[in-house]
Design goal:
Elements: H1 2-13, E1 19-23, H2 32-37, E2 42-44, H3 49-61, E3 65-71, H4 80-88, E4 94-99, H5 117-122, E5 128-130, H6 135-146, E6 152-156, E7 175-179, E8 183-189, H7 193-204, E9 210-215, H8 223-230, E10 233-243, H9 248-258, E11 265-271, H10 282-288, H11 293-302
Parallel strand pairs: 1-2, 1-3, 3-4, 4-6, 5-6, 8-9, 8-10, 10-11
Antiparallel strand pairs: 7-9
Length: about 300
């Protein structure tokens, strides 16, 4: 996903000197070509995310289109006050890019787990929250960001997402139904979509038909269209590599209540309201917290 993001960004930046990429001492190797070919449009502020956000805000006030980049919590929680007061309050054209969503940096522990960011960033007025599920969505969403003004948050997962489905994206919808089935619906967000795809492929051999929705815009979804799809299913599951509090499960529940519709059964697969206390690979932690295909399969078979 990171490669898709930087490829599209560089392509546009080569023809627009107002595009600026800022990093807090991260992104080397993937940024090497950008830095070498566009040195006047690349700024490394060092390990100083708060300062990076303030500089980005100043550049945006002067008409630049700025992208700030760092690991999960570093580009968001570490400089939340600056994002809120400088970028969002002044409605500036800055995209905050977070690399390493969820358990992407699983061996490094809680300081590197981005598991509350969707709830926090989506609570900020004026902030759009974009979450690609794979490299293809990352490329399409980056093009959208480059052609859209205002505060934006791009959450990139280190996993690929594993989706073979590449339909056109309607950004007004905020989601795409990538495959249709009967009875069971999985609504997923981000790279963990690969677990939903895996679940569908395994259960397909056992005559289960699973439908999947990939949400890429957490705020401002087309609620009526989403509800019209959800109503077709007896069992609705949400899947996220994020706390259940304030993330996808909370958002879908809110939409259902607002539209006066309660699914026959709805369950959220996400991280509990607690700090994860174990470390390990992303796959290990997904399994540990029950947000993998194995956990989904068990629940679907029980239903």
């Amino acid at each position: 996903m990171r490669d898709s993001f930087i490829t599209e960004l560089k392509k546009y930046a080569e023809n627009n000197e107002k595009i600026i990429l800022m990093t807090a001492d991260l992104g080397f190797k993937i940024f090497d070509d950008f830095k070498e070919d566009l040195p006047n449009q690349f700024i490394n502020v060092g390990v100083a995310e708060q300062n990076m956000t303030e500089v980005a805000s100043g550049l945006a006030l002067e008409g630049f289109k700025v992208f700030t980049y760092s690991i999960g919590n570093f580009s968001t929680l570490r400089c939340l006050e600056q994002i809120r007061n400088d970028i969002c309050y002044h409605d500036l054209d800055v995209t905050v890019v977070s690399s390493g969503a969820g358990f992407s940096y699983g061996q490094l522990g809680i300081s590197h787990f981005a598991t509350e960011d969707l709830a926090i960033m989506s609570a900020l007025p004026n902030m759009s929250v974009l979450v690609p599920a794979d490299d293809w969505e990352s490329s399409i969403i980056t093009k959208y960001l480059l052609n859209t003004n205002g505060p934006k948050y791009l959450r990139i997962d280190k996993s690929n997402g594993g989706s073979p489905f590449k339909e056109e994206i309607n950004f007004d919808d905020g989601f795409r139904q990538i495959c249709e089935g009967k009875k069971f619906l999985i609504i997923s967000i981000g790279g963990i979509l690969e677990e939903a795809i895996k679940t569908r492929e395994i259960l397909k051999k056992q005559n289960y038909e699973i439908s999947i929705i990939s949400v890429f815009k957490l705020k401002n979804m087309d609620q009526k269209k989403l509800i019209s799809i959800i109503k077709n299913y007896d069992y609705v599951f949400t899947l996220e590599e994020h706390t259940l509090v304030g993330g996808l499960f909370s958002r879908i529940s809110e939409i259902c209540m607002k539209n006066k519709f309660i699914p026959r059964k709805m369950k959220g697969f996400g991280i509990p309201d607690d700090f994860p206390k174990v470390v390990g690979s992303q796959n290990f932690l997904r399994s540990y917290y029950g947000i993998d295909s194995g956990s989904l399969i068990k629940e679907i078979k029980k239903s």
